[in-house]
Design brief:
The protein contains twelve helices and seven strands. The protein is an alpha/beta fold and 253 residues long.
Length: 253
Amino acid sequence: MMTRSCAIVSTAGGLLTKQEGYLVDANDVVIRTGTAPTSGFQPYVGNRTDYRVMSSAFLQSYRHINVTKLKKQLGRETIVYVNGNCNRADRVLNRRKKGVCFVPAPCTYLHDNYRRQYSTGLFAFLYAFQKVKCTSLVMFGFNTTLNEAYRYHYWTDGSVHDGKSARSWYKSRERSGHEFGAEHQFFAMVTGSDGRIDHATFRAVCSRLPNVFLRRSSASSSKRLATNSPPRHLSASREKRREAVGTVVGRAL
């Protein structure tokens, strides 16, 4: 397999605490989530965008997304639609370059541990390995503990997200939305000591072959996971499953 390094950049306000844009752009492929802009934020989030994974739900009226402004900020990237009617979303944006609809192939660990709709970030993770064929992946702005203290989005555009902290948005979505905390736990679990997720680890998680994890340094990952306590809304049985996985791979979840 040809080596292909990829970066996924979230929408988190916590991204503005570090000028890591040059690290984002150093990858072969850059994937962004949602409607996040780059103009004016390049030192923090980078400049390039190859793919943009966007939920069709972003265009629902209650979110008050400024579609006209969104159209202007979109570059030549490929838009990947998830959740809902992607054809309708493509018609709303009305771009010359049509988007693509993405339905991920089954991933065993996620199927066994998550019952709610995946977030755009998790869809982007699956798209990176299943479609873009990334051999290694680094994720920017996906640390629950650090990001909760900051704004949910690092920009303002008049949408329903303006002025909301990540903590308040996560809490509002606990009962009916995504399992943000649990997803970020998952990202931390599969990230190696070098800060990257490799394709072998992705395959191990999705095909239930946990021995691959043993090649990684457990010390750095344990420290990282220690700062991310399990979400309170997870059921006891699901937490037991997580502990079992942590035991197999030599990590305390």
